[in-house]
Amino acid sequence: MAGLKGPPYMEAIMSRLATPIRKNDNVLVITGKDRGKRGRVLRVVPGDNRLVVEGVNMIKRHTKPNPGKNIQGGIVEREASIHASNVQLVCPECGTQTRVGRKILGDGRKVRICRKCEGVVDK
Ligand SMILES: [Zn+2]
User: Fold this and answer.
1) Whole-number Å distance between alpha carbons of 88 and 4
2) Ligand 1 centroid vs 119 CA: distance in angstroms?
3) Based on C-alpha coordinates, what's the Rg of the chain?
4) pLDDT over 70 for what percent of the chain?
5) pLDDT exceeding 90 applies to what percent of the chain?
6) How far is the CA of 82 from the centre of ligand 1 (A)?
7) Residue 79 Cα, ligand 1 centroid: separation in angstroms?
8) CA pair distance 50, 83, nearest whole angstrom
9) Backbone angles phi, psi at 25, to 5 degrees
10) What angle do CA 6, 11, 17 make, to 5 degrees?
11) What is the number of other CB atoms lying within 10 angstroms of the CB of residue 92?
12) Opening angle at CA 68, ends 63 and 71, nearest 5
């Protein structure tokens, strides 16, 4: 993918807007119809700041049977993505919802930290 990288200032903008939430994080929904639900992040939609969270924002999708692909058809419930600003990270250390800070460890690793307990979120 050489040549497709944007100029440095674009990357700076992107990283400021990008959600600090990653796949397999536990999050709490803070707005919308699923407010108060907790779940694991199944997927992060790249570039869109949207997340798919287990059990959150369930939608019913009607599918047609497709015997060739072994799909039965009918109504399938699945998660739709929600915007990253609608959730907060649940800290694995202190178990509360928190904003995410950043820290560079002694060995140079950049990690996410909990703003409440200062615990390292990334293992
Ligand atoms: Zn914490």
Assistant:
1) 32
2) 5
3) 18
4) 86
5) 68
6) 23
7) 27
8) 4
9) -70, 155
10) 135
11) 14
12) 30
Q: What is residue 47's predicted lDDT score, i.e. its pLDDT?
A: 86
Residue 9 is predicted with a pLDDT of: 63
CA 12 to centroid of ligand 1, rounded, Å: 27
Q: Are 90 and 21 in contact (CB under 8 A)?
A: no
pTM: 0.77
CA of residue 47 to ligand 1 center, whole Å: 27
pLDDT at 60 over 60: yes
Residue 43 CA to ligand 1 center (angstroms) comes to 23
Span from the CA of 112 to the centroid of ligand 1 (angstroms): 11
Tokens found for residue 119 = 């615990």
Q: Map residue 85 onto helix, strand or coil.
A: helix
Distance, CA of 57 to CA of 44 (rounded, Å): 14
Query: Residue 21 corresponds to which tokens in the numbers above?
Result: 């939430």
Give the distance (Å) from ligand 1 centre to CA of residue 90. 8
109: burial class by Cβ within 10 Å (0-12, 13-18, 19+)? exposed
